[in-house]
Amino acid sequence: MISLKNSYVPAHLAIEAMRDNGYKNTAYAVCELIDNSIQANASHVQLLCGEAERQLSTRRSSKLEQIAVLDNGDGMSPDVLALSLQFGNGTRLRKDQRTGIGRFGMGLPASSISQCKRVDVWSWQDGVENAYHVYLDVNEIKNTKSSSMPEPFKKAVPYIYSKVVKEFGRTGTLVVWSSIDRLMWNKGETLLRHSESLIGRIYRKFIHSNQLKIQMTVFDLDNPSYVSRDQLSKPNDPCYLMAKTNCPEPFHNKPMFEKHGGENYERIFRVNYKDQNHDIFVRTSIASLEARTDDNAGNTPHGKHAKDNTGISVVRAGRELELDQTLVSQSDPTERWWGIEVEFPPSLDELMGVTNNKQTARNFSDILGMIHQIIDLQRKGKDIDEIKEELEEEGDPRAPLIEVADYIYKQITSLRKLIKEQTKGMRSKSKRYENTEIEKKATEYTQERKRQGFVGSSDIDEALTPEEKVENIRTDLITSGVEEEEAQEIAVYTVTNNLKYSFTESYFESDAFFTVQPSGGALNILLNRNHPAYEHLIEVLDNNESSNSRDLQDRLEKASEGLRLLLAAWARFEDEIPDGERKDDIQDARKDWGRIAKKFLKK
């Protein structure tokens, strides 16, 4: 007969089964401890990797033997400390307490035993000398088959940590992993190298806003005063809209991407879930032209950095859960040049399908995976509201996410088109800047005329700051129909090189072959691609697809013909003006233009 004292889940068996709880690697498990620190209002967290030299089969080598996380958070009372290593228990389980990044009560014990067989926790609320201690030992539980937890008791933090840590907070917590047997990396340097980018990305909002400093330290357990690595984590923004990040130069101190849509880059979705309204934020960005100036920008350090950050950043309460790859085309290297961030509150955990190890939002990922079905239904005449209603009728809890997924897909489609155009035009745009002798000569001749006393209406803006000049030129070009990225590139290039002139091509509805746009102290000459003169004078000479002598001769003849026709058109224009003051003004304008052209064209 089975005793009633038997448990449905014997502790010694359950603890071993729970060691396989799905953490992607050690870095993700460490993040659970950092989550607890943030939830406890810590402003400083230190990740400590303790190495010791050990004899291997043929040589001695340093091996990572302890991992610790120290914070200056609120600390825990003995009663709360007693709960900290219980699976599924915690202080943030009720719905009305879901305001921060914690919730499930699984983080500390689950992440710890996924990497090691023993975890020790010290916590204090009145000086580190008054720390209380509790522990979980997998081997002890298996050997004794006990399900009871040890009571917290006063115990000093280990001497080695008092040597390596410069200062303990008045309140705080120290978590130490030992008997480590499931590490992906065996050296502290390797762990930090793989963790720093991930940690910087997951906690970028906290680090960037100066709410949190994360210090990463590697030290010698046998000689704790010897520290081989000690550094602060930098934010790693997959949308590349932050400055001062871990992105390589020249984008380490400035954003590499731009807000897609300008200040309208953010869309807020009001989602009704369980009779309450909640906001989901979707933000989009696209690489600046400067980031893609090189012919092979993907192989630059910043291009490789962007490749590692490809995907949709899913953020919960300011903390990233994952970079979702569902809609990423793995075969397209240009996918790295767009960024999308989706942020939601913890109150939507069930709707989004947040897992207890906080590594994914399963429902959100699933709904993104259904996007092609959703698009097919739209092509057949159904709108988003109808599709959403059908899912609700079927009892699908993901229905409120339909509109968000649809918007994201359409944003990605738009971003891909822009990037494709950007890529297609990259060589022609770079070619335009390979030889700027025309703009430079025109600038020099203009300076000469200014010295002679001639003044242009654009000259007054030369007193503006470089930043103001760039913004004015950029804004006016965008207003004229130039793409935002190209407008930014032209503005920066013109101001940086102190050019008075720039040439830009665009499609606009006008009979004019070109317009002159004074802006930011410069004159931008906007060529109308819709005008036949563009095809006969500009496009025909810029076409370098064929370089044989016959083709070259044909193109030169076409350009010459185009120029003659353009002059003939002017002649006819003059001829049709009745004699009088207006005709005299037009003829004077032709002569004045000719005099300036004579100077500009003189070799």
TrEMBL record:
The keyword ATP-binding applies. Keywords: ATP-binding, Nucleotide-binding. One of its GO terms (molecular function) is ATP binding. It comes from the Bacteria. The keyword ATP-binding applies. SUPFAM superfamilies: ATPase domain of HSP90 chaperone/DNA topoisomerase II/histidine kinase. This is ATP-binding protein. It comes from Neobacillus novalis.
